[in-house]
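Human: I would love a firmer grasp of how sequence relates to backbone shape in proteins. Take your time, and here it is.
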Amino acid sequence: MTGSAADQRALKISEEPLRPVGQQYGFVTGTVESIKDIWAHRELMGLLVRREIKARYKDSSLGFLWSLVRPLTQLLIYYFAIGQIMGLARNIPSFAIFVFVGLTIWGLFTEIVSSGTTSIINNSGLVKKIYLPREIFPLGSVGGALFNFAIQFGILLLATLVARQFPLTTNVLYAPLAFLTILIFGTALGIFLSSVNVYLRDVQHLVEVALIVLFWASPIVYSFSFVHDKLNGNLLEQIYLLNPITLAVLGMQKALWVAGTTESTTANWPPDLGVRLLIVMAIGLVLLWLSQRVFSRLQGNFAQEL
């Protein structure tokens, strides 16, 4: 680059207005400004989502089919190890569909949280070079997770059709409630953890451990009826049901696991499941707002920390 060209570039940079990064508004008005800023950069966020999807399957012969390999492998392991060897399949009708439903909604949550946690660090080059609302990075991870979820959900519906258990009852209304619960809580955690992880890199490793614990704390490979039989509706069962992921998994199961909604198993569903989902969704929206506000306060020093 010639000296004159470098001088012209430096002049253009000096003429650019300074863009303050971080909390510049009130706790409430700052949320509105952040939403406006994110919306103004929506095309860039779309590019980030497409880049993430393309990078994931670049130079791959199977392409998008790889998004099914992990959940299908988990399904086979749990089906044979837990369903057949441990005998749970004898007590859970249509055990394969039951497990697949849980793994599909759980996969959405884990991908949003795990990818969101590392999203700022993985895009450190962009964060240090140009101004843009940093929230688009964890939100871009949400977009990639939704793409994979759509593929897995389509295969799940196809499986229910092949098994002649396609959900056609009013219970299917639980599915959007469960989906929104996972989406809201996952996004809230992804935004919050992505900002904290910039300062404390151990967070991403703690998240991996926490997701393992949370997996077994949710009725994904075992039925809620086992929990209910053991705890019999006591205080511990109510604490168990405070977990929003547990409620979302149960909601998706009630919507799509037709064999589990027969008269013999209906009594084992938590009472007022729909109301519980609406309550945790409302709580999740508050957490999402608070997470964004924490993110806004912490993002001012991202470039220096990275």
Remarks:
- The chain has a mean pLDDT of 82.
